[in-house]
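User: Teach me something about this protein's shape.
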Amino acid sequence: MSNSNAYRWHAGIAAATVLVFAGTGVGVPAQANTDGNSVIGGFEIDGNFYEGFDNSSTATGPDGDPVDWGSAEISTDVSHLVDPTGNADDTVYGQGSKEDDLSSWQNEGSQSAPGQADIGNIYVYDRVVGGDLYAFVAFDRAQTTGTTTWYLELNQHPNTTNQHGVSVPDRTVNDLRLTMTVQGNGDFAVETAHVWDGSDWVVAPGGSGDAWAGLANDSEITTTEGAREEARFMELGFNLTELLGADDACVFTGYQALNLRSQSGQGTNAELKDHAVGTVDVPSRCGDLVIEKRDVDGNLVGGATFGVTPNPIPEADDPGELTIVDNDENDVDPADGVVRIDPAEPGEYTVTEASPPPGYIGTDEAQEVTLDEFGSATVVFENRLGTLAWQKLDESSGEPVCCATFTVEATEGDGADAGVSVTVVDNGENDADTAAGVVLVEELMTGTYTITETVAPEGYELPVDPVRTDVVISAETPDVVVSEPFEDPRQLAELTVRKIAEDSEEPLAGAVFELYLDDGNGAPDAPEGDTLVGECTTGADGTCTRDGLDFGDYYWFEVQAPDGYLLPETRFSEMISVTATNTGTSPATVTFVDPPAEPEPTPTPTEPEPTPTEPEPTPTEPTPSPTEPEPTEPEPSPTDPGLPDTGGSSVAGWLAISLALLMTGAVVLARRPNQC
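Assistant: First, the predicted structure itself:
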């Protein structure tokens, strides 16, 4: 503890009013004692409040030692407790309260303490000088007449209460008690110094009288609370290091409670009168060695074990090394992640982590630390957790694929004991790696894990084996990369083409299509170029489909139109892209529209011209003559009986005969029975 550290006083169960002394104001000349003045630990023990032995001390005084209660340079480190006096004081002991019998202590709120035993203001200060710890206490009382015994007790544990509800010390080994007396308005003297040995008070190792000095004012003085007549103001200083014999060992852990009691008369059988209780912070000569265990985010983590060499515990059975576990009997701090050894012998130490908290990755790096007397030293060990990483790939291309979902579950070890189970989405929840297809899960406790792919990326199927087992995170392998990636097969697509009539928009069956996979140039090159996937023929609903299609760009090519229809002017469809985002759906159906074929022209019907044929003889009734008749010789023309008639009448006659014969033949043909 530094020489600026002060006691911190609070009203105890005694319900005293607490005032913090924050300044001395303007100094007032005050009478110092005429003799018996001394300086201990750089502090004036002279029966007055301000600096100086020359009967004209002031609030400011010269810089540096010696100092006094009113010195400006220590004023903010002086603590001030006020215990009410007279009838306002409700912390007066009742009858039968004896010093050595804590169970007899009880309050008598309806009475007031005798004036000479009525405690008023208390001032406390401490400092380290020359490696020794000094404490200083001053107090005043209401009156000066009568013999009074005072007990000043410093305890390492906070006060507790007895069966009467009165605040009493919780005594432990090496608690300190000073006994002081005042004979009327005579001299103030420190009589004895005792330490508690666990069951009784015994003389302190340095209790010969050289370790302390005390004095009461032998004339009126002035304090911050006003004038104090002779023998009303008492002060003492004592060397705690010497009193406790703590040159080479830390015999106390630091005092937390102060109890000041008054008693009329002498001897421990006399009745106690008044008491004041406060909490203080008086350090041990030993230091305070703290080991903190934190995670990478700075959070405290409990459960670690450390080794400290040499053993810092005073007078330890094994001085070579201390093994200390967070919150074991040697750790005085109940907080998880904070190991506090108090008191710890001043010296140089090596601190190592023997084992990390459960599930954490330990470190074998030792830390060196120096602990000064009355000092405090802290070392911080940082532990991290493990990580798991793996890849998600396209089974066909081997390229990374994003956004699958996995579960990571601990099956053995610390992780399993803690019930670790994590859902992670690639580039989403709990994934610490921003790259697509790379999953990194951090802050996993040591243990054995199983990784399961539960949801495949869009456009993919789960692999045949979606599980990786026996993945171990340990101190030797804190960051595990799963060697076998998760490779997912693609979902296959199907494409449909539709054929309708241009005129009626009705579906047409019988159209033949070929499906091509583009070679990458973005232009249809069928039938000479690109890759023919297959063909199909439309059914009654006008559609046909090809399935089992991988990712890529496709187009339809109409090979043959249905009967009665013509191929369209454009026989290619637009490009149809099959990707991971649409392969599991039904891409739009492509429609081809075919115009009807033009019909053959039909000739106009006309009368057929008769084909000239030899007229068949007209059948006649048979004549009874068995012989053919003799031909008749034509009669000669009356004009020219010797030549052929070549006149007009002769021609007209032949024409008439010919026409008659033709008509006769036609009639005969019409009446002739059909013969094969």
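Now, about its shape. Residues 1-30, 623-629, 634-654, 666-676 have pLDDT under 50 and may be disordered. Residues 287-382 form a domain with the Immunoglobulin-like fold (CATH 2.60.40.10). If you'd like, I can walk through any region in more detail.
User: That's plenty for now, thanks!
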